[in-house]
TrEMBL record, chain B:
The protein's name: Checkpoint protein
GO terms for biological process, alphabetical: cellular response to ionizing radiation; double-strand break repair via homologous recombination; embryo development ending in birth or egg hatching; meiotic DNA integrity checkpoint signaling; mitotic DNA replication checkpoint signaling; mitotic intra-S DNA damage checkpoint signaling; nucleotide-excision repair; response to UV
The keyword DNA damage appears for this protein: yes
Organism: Macaca fascicularis
Predominant location: cytoplasm
Origin superkingdom: Eukaryota
Length: 390, 288
């Protein structure tokens, strides 16, 4: 495999690696006929990211030496990222970047041709691996929205960088709402501030979702794709389904496309995924943008009534109404033979105190029985074999 | 208990945000006192020595174009709330380009101060950011500890030099010693002094001017050049100086020795008479 990246595309490649580094610790590099794919998955298998660079992205692209099989390798993300660590440096000094993988040598060679005749060569060790695939199909998701990355970047500004999860949903009047999500703390004295951003439908190029739908996903992982999309000035699409089903975030331009697939909290795990404000008791739709101008209702602002409400449980403001979406966890992907037991998701009840992503179900590393329609070609879905066997 | 207020003026919002940032730099939690004419931010640090206690007063009508409150009761028409300072400053940070900012006392799942910001947006639709800051209502019996610090009849009261200059001087001094001696007299002279075994560094400020003192009589027989001094922790002073982001129209320092021998230093910073911040630092004399 040999590919040569020149000019501004070096920085684009670097940015993509930075994005991927937000997700996983290992990078799967696979040269395909339709381009170079860089993929990663997180340790709990609740997030998958993939960038595919078309042959035209490169000045020179050779997927494999003729007569040889396509090679695949898995590299430590840290190692690969160190080559592209300083984006400023890439922009200023690197003229060309050459990535080559020789079947005989056991090193992935990344060579940076810089100004003033400086050449930096990185020899990275890698492991052979199976193709990392995730089963997902954006077309099968009933809901989607698309907006310029800049709009979404502005939408997440109110949230602190440390915020782990965010709930995205459609509220009354087709307003798109993003709200910070905090797990119910056992120690309820230390409450976190809840922030919410409410955007109008006009900010979106496409909005195909009913009022009341909402999903909760990891914001930190999403930021990885968002920062790439913002720097490349692309539109970002979000395809989603019921809570618990993975959400698919995509970007695309003529030279590359990116997919981030993130697990979402399922209804059984979350209580407050509904974005309805408790002041209103309407069965449908549940999602309310309580920031829509409405006659200020002081009755709900009265702190004293909170004191009273603590005693009673009948129709009080604290009751949470679940979304009207069906609560069935969705079709479980049947376990397929040949999948390692490591694919089984951790049961929430057995992992108290672990960070939220572990509670997500890794549904999409699923069965080969499900129709495979991955953008990467017809290769079957296989779990990556830690033994490195064929 | 009810409270709702609205700011529409950009300059007022800016000033309010800077005050909130200053509070966030000084302490993790602060008390917000709401009364019909004023809004106060109060920080109480009850440490024995060199504790910082800060009192900030805002004239409500200088900031809000709508302000309605109803206190705990008719006789006690005030509200005292405790909140995490950083939450408020973070909420206000999103209001940089706002058309309007509303603050309300609400109880959604828990009592909170809801800050609602209507952003200017390029598209026709408005964007609204809402922050629900969790608060704790402070019961009436604790209100007495949260009153304005009074430093009656200071011995010496002096206008401070440009705070930025003072801050850069103190910052350099911090590398040499943890304790600073502030000396001031009624002749417009202020000294910042640090002393270690090896070195003693003093920065002199002259011609600073002294505000008129309340009781003239006691000062006629005073030596104008007599320096009143107090020892304080440099870090606390820096904390106070670092928080000053607003260019004050008046910044002064009052020094007082109580009968018990305890010395107190009060820094007061005023901006355009719309906000007043008082910081009290206690004396920390090192007994050798």
């Amino acid at each position: 495999m040999k590919c040569l990246v020149t000019g501004g595309n070096v920085k684009v490649l670097g940015k993509a690696v930075h994005s991927l580094s937000r997700i996983g610790d290992e990078l799967y590099l696979e040269p395909l006929e339709d381009g170079l794919s860089l993929r990663t998955v997180n340790s709990s298998r609740s997030a998958y990211a993939c960038f595919l660079f078309a042959p035209l992205f490169f000045q020179q692209y050779q997927a494999a030496t003729p007569g040889q099989d396509l090679l695949r390798c898995k590299i430590l993300m840290k190692s690969f990222l160190s080559v592209f660590r300083s984006l400023a440096m890439l922009e200023k000094t690197v003229e060309k970047c050459c990535i080559s993988l020789n079947g005989r040598s056991s090193r992935l060679v990344v060579q940076l041709h810089c100004k003033f005749g400086v050449r930096k060569t990185h020899n990275l060790s890698f492991q052979d691996c199976e193709s990392l695939q995730a089963v997902f199909d954006p077309a099968s998701c009933p809901h989607m929205l698309r907006a310029p990355a800049r709009v979404l970047g502005e939408a997440v500004l109110p949230f602190p960088p440390a915020l782990a999860e965010v709930t995205l949903g459609i509220g009354r009047g087709r307003r798109v709402i993003l709200r910070s999500y905090h797990e119910e703390e056992a120690d309820s004295t230390a409450k976190a501030m809840v922030s919410e951003m409410c955007l109008g439908e006009e900010d979106f190029q496409q909005l195909q979702a009913q009022e009341g739908v909402a999903i909760t996903f990891c914001l930190k992982e999403f930021r990885g794709l968002l920062s790439f999309a913002e720097s490349a000035n692309l539109n970002l699409s979000i395809h989603f389904d019921a809570p618990g089903r993975p959400a698919i975030f995509t970007i695309k331009d003529s030279l590359l496309d990116g997919h981030f697939v993130l697990a979402t909290l399922s209804d059984t795990d979350s209580h407050s995924q509904d974005l309805g404000s408790p002041e209103r008791h309407q069965p449908v739709p549940q999602l309310q943008a309580h920031s829509i101008p409405h006659p200020d209702d002081f009755a709900n602002d009265d702190i004293d009534s909170y004191m009273i409400a603590m005693e009673t449980t009948i129709g009080n403001e604290g009751s949470r109404v679940l979304p009207s979406i069906s609560l069935s966890p969705g079709p479980q992907h049947p376990e397929s033979p040949g999948l390692h037991s490591e694919e089984d998701e951790a049961e929430p009840s057995t992992v108290p105190g672990t960070p939220p992503p572990k509670k997500f179900r890794s549904l999409f590393f699923g069965s080969i029985l499900a129709p495979v329609r991955s953008p990467q070609g017809p290769s079957p879905v296989l779990a990556e074999d830690s033994e490195g066997e064929g | 208990m009810r409270f709702r207020a609205k700011i529409v003026d950009g300059a007022c919002l800016n000033h309010f945000t800077r005050i909130s940032n200053m509070i966030a730099k000084l302490a993790k939690t602060c008390t917000l006192r709401i009364s019909p004419d004023k809004l106060n931010f109060i920080l109480c640090d009850k440490l024995a020595n060199g504790g910082v206690s800060m009192w900030c007063e805002l004239e409500q009508e200088n900031f809000f174009n709508e302000f309605q409150m109803e206190g705990v009761s008719a006789e006690n028409n005030e509200i005292y709330l405790e909140l995490t300072s950083e939450n408020l400053s973070r909420a206000l940070k999103t209001a940089q380009n706002a058309r309007a900012l509303k603050i309300k006392l609400t109880n959604k799942h828990f009592p909170c101060l809801t800050v609602s910001v209507e952003l200017l947006s390029m598209s026709s639709s408005s964007r609204i950011v809402t922050h629900d800051i969790p608060i704790k209502v402070i019961p009436r019996k604790l209100w007495k500890d949260l009153q304005e610090p009074v430093v009656p009849d200071p011995d010496v009261s002096i206008y401070l030099p440009v705070l930025k200059t003072m801050k850069s001087v103190v910052e350099k001094m911090k590398n040499i010693s943890n304790h600073l001696v502030i000396e001031a007299n009624l002749d417009g002279e202020l000294n910042l002094k640090i002393e270690t075994e090896l070195v003693c560094v003093t920065t002199h400020f002259k011609d600073l001017g002294n505000p008129p003192l309340a009781s003239e009589s006691t000062h006629q027989d005073r030596n104008m050049e007599h320096m009143a001094e107090v020892h304080i922790d440099i870090r606390k002073l820096l904390q106070f100086l670092a928080g000053q982001q607003v260019n004050p129209t008046k910044a002064l320092c009052m020094h007082r020795i109580c009968r018990s021998g305890k010395k107190t230093l009060l820094f007061r910073v005023e901006t355009n008479e719309t906000s007043k911040v008082s910081s009290v630092l206690g004396d920390e004399t090192i007994f050798l």
